[in-house]
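ugh ok fine here u go
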Amino acid sequence: MYALLGENGAGKTTLLRSLAGLSRPSGGMIKLFGESNIRTVVQRLGYMAHPSLLYEEMSGMENLLYFCGLYGMQDAGQRCREVIQLVGLDPELTRRVGQYSQGMRQRMSLARAIVHDPELLLLDEPFSNVDIASTRDMVRLLGTMRDGGRTIVIVTHQASLLEGVADEFVSMHAGRVVGRTAHLPTGSEMTGVSAR
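structure:
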Protein backbone atom coordinates (compact mmCIF):
# COMPACT_ATOMS: atom_id res chain seq x y z
CA MET A 1 0.00 0.00 0.00
CA TYR A 2 1.47 3.29 -1.16
CA ALA A 3 0.17 6.64 0.12
CA LEU A 4 0.86 9.52 -2.29
CA LEU A 5 1.30 12.80 -0.44
CA GLY A 6 1.91 16.38 -1.49
CA GLU A 7 0.33 19.79 -1.85
CA ASN A 8 -2.40 20.55 -4.38
CA GLY A 9 -0.85 20.57 -7.85
CA ALA A 10 2.02 18.24 -6.89
CA GLY A 11 1.00 15.73 -9.57
CA LYS A 12 -0.62 13.04 -7.43
CA THR A 13 -3.92 12.82 -9.32
CA THR A 14 -2.11 13.11 -12.65
CA LEU A 15 0.08 10.15 -11.70
CA LEU A 16 -2.97 8.15 -10.65
CA ARG A 17 -4.82 8.99 -13.89
CA SER A 18 -1.73 8.01 -15.88
CA LEU A 19 -1.52 4.66 -14.06
CA ALA A 20 -5.22 4.12 -14.84
CA GLY A 21 -4.63 4.84 -18.54
CA LEU A 22 -6.80 7.98 -18.45
CA SER A 23 -3.94 10.45 -19.08
CA ARG A 24 -0.82 10.12 -21.18
CA PRO A 25 2.46 10.89 -19.47
CA SER A 26 4.37 13.83 -20.97
CA GLY A 27 7.57 11.80 -20.68
CA GLY A 28 8.75 8.36 -19.73
CA MET A 29 6.73 5.18 -19.91
CA ILE A 30 4.32 3.29 -17.66
CA LYS A 31 4.22 -0.49 -17.55
CA LEU A 32 1.64 -2.39 -15.53
CA PHE A 33 1.77 -6.17 -15.24
CA GLY A 34 4.54 -6.07 -17.85
CA GLU A 35 2.38 -4.26 -20.40
CA SER A 36 2.96 -0.75 -21.73
CA ASN A 37 -0.53 -0.69 -23.31
CA ILE A 38 -2.63 -0.21 -20.17
CA ARG A 39 -5.85 -0.88 -22.07
CA THR A 40 -4.87 -4.55 -22.28
CA VAL A 41 -4.78 -4.84 -18.46
CA VAL A 42 -7.57 -2.42 -17.51
CA GLN A 43 -9.75 -5.21 -16.08
CA ARG A 44 -7.02 -5.89 -13.53
CA LEU A 45 -7.29 -2.28 -12.25
CA GLY A 46 -9.77 -0.64 -9.91
CA TYR A 47 -9.95 3.17 -10.07
CA MET A 48 -11.73 5.53 -7.71
CA ALA A 49 -11.64 9.13 -8.92
CA HIS A 50 -12.26 12.16 -6.74
CA PRO A 51 -15.72 12.56 -8.37
CA SER A 52 -17.83 9.45 -7.69
CA LEU A 53 -18.34 8.40 -11.36
CA LEU A 54 -21.67 6.88 -10.31
CA TYR A 55 -24.98 7.26 -12.14
CA GLU A 56 -27.08 9.42 -9.83
CA GLU A 57 -30.47 8.30 -11.15
CA MET A 58 -29.71 4.66 -10.29
CA SER A 59 -29.52 2.94 -6.90
CA GLY A 60 -26.20 1.70 -5.57
CA MET A 61 -27.05 -1.89 -6.50
CA GLU A 62 -28.10 -0.85 -10.01
CA ASN A 63 -24.81 1.03 -10.41
CA LEU A 64 -22.74 -1.96 -9.37
CA LEU A 65 -24.70 -4.38 -11.56
CA TYR A 66 -24.15 -2.04 -14.51
CA PHE A 67 -20.38 -1.90 -13.90
CA CYS A 68 -20.26 -5.69 -13.44
CA GLY A 69 -21.82 -5.96 -16.90
CA LEU A 70 -19.05 -3.76 -18.30
CA TYR A 71 -16.50 -6.11 -16.75
CA GLY A 72 -18.29 -9.12 -18.24
CA MET A 73 -19.20 -10.53 -14.82
CA GLN A 74 -22.13 -12.94 -14.97
CA ASP A 75 -24.65 -13.45 -12.15
CA ALA A 76 -23.00 -10.67 -10.16
CA GLY A 77 -25.87 -9.94 -7.76
CA GLN A 78 -24.31 -11.77 -4.81
CA ARG A 79 -20.91 -10.14 -5.37
CA CYS A 80 -22.57 -6.70 -5.50
CA ARG A 81 -24.38 -7.34 -2.21
CA GLU A 82 -21.13 -8.49 -0.56
CA VAL A 83 -19.19 -5.44 -1.74
CA ILE A 84 -21.91 -2.99 -0.69
CA GLN A 85 -21.85 -4.54 2.79
CA LEU A 86 -18.04 -4.46 2.84
CA VAL A 87 -18.08 -0.68 2.45
CA GLY A 88 -20.70 -0.31 5.19
CA LEU A 89 -23.85 0.32 3.18
CA ASP A 90 -27.16 -1.55 2.92
CA PRO A 91 -27.56 -3.54 -0.33
CA GLU A 92 -31.35 -3.27 0.03
CA LEU A 93 -31.22 0.54 -0.09
CA THR A 94 -33.34 1.50 -3.11
CA ARG A 95 -32.75 5.24 -2.91
CA ARG A 96 -31.09 6.79 -5.96
CA VAL A 97 -27.37 7.59 -5.56
CA GLY A 98 -28.24 11.24 -6.22
CA GLN A 99 -29.99 11.21 -2.83
CA TYR A 100 -26.97 9.74 -0.98
CA SER A 101 -24.85 11.84 1.37
CA GLN A 102 -21.31 12.64 0.21
CA GLY A 103 -19.91 10.00 2.55
CA MET A 104 -22.29 7.37 1.19
CA ARG A 105 -21.27 8.27 -2.37
CA GLN A 106 -17.61 7.85 -1.44
CA ARG A 107 -18.26 4.41 0.00
CA MET A 108 -20.32 3.38 -3.03
CA SER A 109 -17.57 4.68 -5.29
CA LEU A 110 -15.11 2.43 -3.44
CA ALA A 111 -17.54 -0.48 -3.91
CA ARG A 112 -17.58 0.25 -7.66
CA ALA A 113 -13.77 0.25 -7.75
CA ILE A 114 -13.44 -3.13 -6.00
CA VAL A 115 -16.49 -5.03 -7.29
CA HIS A 116 -14.41 -6.94 -9.88
CA ASP A 117 -11.67 -7.80 -7.31
CA PRO A 118 -8.83 -5.88 -9.02
CA GLU A 119 -5.16 -6.67 -8.48
CA LEU A 120 -4.20 -2.99 -8.49
CA LEU A 121 -6.42 -0.43 -6.77
CA LEU A 122 -5.95 3.30 -7.49
CA LEU A 123 -7.79 5.61 -5.08
CA ASP A 124 -8.01 9.41 -5.25
CA GLU A 125 -9.00 10.94 -1.88
CA PRO A 126 -11.22 8.01 -0.82
CA PHE A 127 -11.80 9.40 2.69
CA SER A 128 -13.14 12.83 1.68
CA ASN A 129 -16.45 13.64 3.39
CA VAL A 130 -16.55 10.26 5.14
CA ASP A 131 -17.18 10.18 8.90
CA ILE A 132 -14.36 8.90 11.07
CA ALA A 133 -16.00 5.56 11.96
CA SER A 134 -16.66 4.76 8.30
CA THR A 135 -13.16 5.91 7.39
CA ARG A 136 -11.66 3.49 9.89
CA ASP A 137 -13.78 0.71 8.38
CA MET A 138 -12.55 1.65 4.89
CA VAL A 139 -8.91 1.66 6.07
CA ARG A 140 -9.41 -1.81 7.63
CA LEU A 141 -10.95 -3.08 4.38
CA LEU A 142 -8.04 -1.71 2.34
CA GLY A 143 -5.57 -3.27 4.77
CA THR A 144 -7.31 -6.64 4.36
CA MET A 145 -7.16 -6.29 0.57
CA ARG A 146 -3.45 -5.44 0.76
CA ASP A 147 -2.85 -8.45 3.02
CA GLY A 148 -4.70 -10.54 0.41
CA GLY A 149 -2.09 -9.67 -2.22
CA ARG A 150 -3.57 -6.52 -3.76
CA THR A 151 -1.45 -3.46 -4.52
CA ILE A 152 -3.10 -0.19 -3.47
CA VAL A 153 -2.06 3.36 -4.35
CA ILE A 154 -3.90 6.07 -2.41
CA VAL A 155 -3.80 9.83 -2.97
CA THR A 156 -4.71 11.48 0.31
CA HIS A 157 -4.41 14.66 2.33
CA GLN A 158 -5.31 12.58 5.40
CA ALA A 159 -2.08 10.58 5.65
CA SER A 160 -2.39 10.05 9.40
CA LEU A 161 -5.33 7.69 8.71
CA LEU A 162 -2.91 5.31 6.99
CA GLU A 163 -0.21 5.35 9.65
CA GLY A 164 0.57 1.74 10.57
CA VAL A 165 -1.32 0.50 7.49
CA ALA A 166 0.51 1.95 4.47
CA ASP A 167 3.76 0.23 3.55
CA GLU A 168 5.27 3.35 2.06
CA PHE A 169 4.53 7.09 2.06
CA VAL A 170 5.60 8.72 -1.21
CA SER A 171 5.95 12.51 -1.21
CA MET A 172 5.51 14.43 -4.48
CA HIS A 173 6.30 18.00 -5.50
CA ALA A 174 6.00 19.61 -8.95
CA GLY A 175 5.33 16.29 -10.66
CA ARG A 176 8.26 14.46 -9.12
CA VAL A 177 8.77 12.02 -6.27
CA VAL A 178 10.83 13.88 -3.68
CA GLY A 179 10.75 11.43 -0.78
CA ARG A 180 9.83 7.93 0.28
CA THR A 181 9.55 6.61 3.81
CA ALA A 182 8.03 3.64 5.61
CA HIS A 183 6.48 5.89 8.26
CA LEU A 184 4.34 9.01 8.24
CA PRO A 185 6.78 11.68 7.00
CA THR A 186 7.66 14.85 8.85
CA GLY A 187 7.73 18.19 7.04
CA SER A 188 11.47 17.92 6.30
CA GLU A 189 11.02 14.44 4.85
CA MET A 190 8.36 15.64 2.41
CA THR A 191 10.47 18.22 0.59
CA GLY A 192 13.94 18.38 -0.77
CA VAL A 193 14.71 14.68 -0.39
CA SER A 194 16.02 12.84 -3.41
CA ALA A 195 13.93 9.93 -4.59
CA ARG A 196 15.57 6.53 -4.63
